[in-house]
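[RESIDUES AND BACKBONE]
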Amino acid sequence: MVSLSAHGELVEPWPSPCLTDNHGMRSFSTWIVAIFSSPAGVIVLAALDSTLLFSLPFGIDTAVIILAARLRAFAWVVPLLATGGSIAGAWLTFWMGAKIGEKGLERYVAPRRLKRVRARIESSGAIALAVLDLIPPPFPFTPFVLAAGALAVNAATFFVTLTICRLLRFGLEAALAFVYGPNILSWLDADLFHDIVTGCVLLTAILTTLSLIKILRTSGRPKARRVPA
């Protein structure tokens, strides 16, 4: 609804330019997609996705599919980029787990989940733990990488298996993007897609902030001192 000012000028209601700027929101979502669906963006997103500092369900998978659909003939490069970034982030998480140790692990992983991780390692070892990566999102795989480092699983076996699993996962996504590329790229222009991107960005900001708060709180807790007998 449009009203007239005291001087007879047309005035739009206050919320209109601030809350319904669809062009501005679409430009923002387009910018986000352009960044993370680039070769460098896929590497960075894959690395962040394998750490405790960042959380975006389906984020790296979506970026892999979009970039592979755009590259077409060079779609095979995308799984390599995503796997490289993902392994780098997983190594950092593994290293953090090795530093905090088994006792420190209880600060970051829920007791029930930690019990399942211990049981899986004892029964099947590093390979079975890395294979969990094949479970589709939103399965929380990163805590298992942290637990692998804290529980001192064989690093070489774990990362070789994880690399193979990541190549399979991202390779399948790239293959699907190669086949259905035109349909995927046409869907990127839909308003619904841009609304989803905007919502995911907001969700990521919330989840990442909560993760940082949790890490700061747990790392700041004083360790229990042993009382001499």
In short: Residues 10-21, 222-229 have pLDDT under 50 and may be disordered.
